[in-house]
Amino acid sequence: MITAHLDSTAAFSDHFEPHADIAPGRDDDASGVAAVLAVASVMKKLATTKPPKRSIRFVLFNAEEHGLIGSKAYARGQAAKKAPIVGVYQMDMIGYNVNPPRSFEVHVGYLPSH
Ligand SMILES: [Zn+2]
């Protein structure tokens, strides 16, 4: 599974003023959603030449900021079905680097082998 969460809020941040402050949604977690979509696009292209050995799910959870409600519900459902999930790659706030220099690199794409 490759996952991120859709919702965003800064309501739990110190000194948050909802009428004056912006929610940090572009990082938390639009960055993760964008990455999930980018990986899905690349994996779709890769699958045309070499199908993956396992199913890959691209999952976007809601209500993360209210206590992981969406992801916990999903996990409970999958556990109840005994779904054979072997790995989860969760991306949350991947577009922010707190340490200087404040930059980061995103590497996407692939070159098909010949
Ligand atoms: Zn988050």
In short:
With 114 residues, the chain is of the alpha/beta class. The chain has two helices and three strands.
Report on this structure.
The chain is an alpha/beta fold. It has two helices and three strands; from the N terminus they run βαβαβ. It has one domain (2-90). Helix 1 (30-49) links the parallel strand 1 and strand 2 (58-61). The two termini are 28 Å apart. Bound molecules: zinc ion (ZN).
Pick out its properties.
114 residues; alpha/beta; binds zinc ion; flat; three-stranded parallel β-sheet
Question: Strand percentage, roughly?
Answer: 5-15%
Structurally, how many domains make up the residues?
1
Return the average pLDDT rounded to an integer.
Answer: 86
Number of helices in the DSSP assignment: 2
The chain-level structural class is alpha/beta
Spatial order of the strands forming the largest sheet: 2-1-3
The rounded distance between the terminal residues' Cα atoms is 28 Å
Q: Provide the low-confidence segments as ranges.
A: none
Q: Gyration radius, to the nearest Å?
A: 17 Å
Order of helices and strands: EHEHE
Q: Biggest β-sheet, characterized?
A: 3 strands, parallel
Helix share, percent = 25-40%
Named once each, the bound ligands are: zinc ion
Shape summary:
flat
Task: Give the tally of β-strands.
Answer: 3
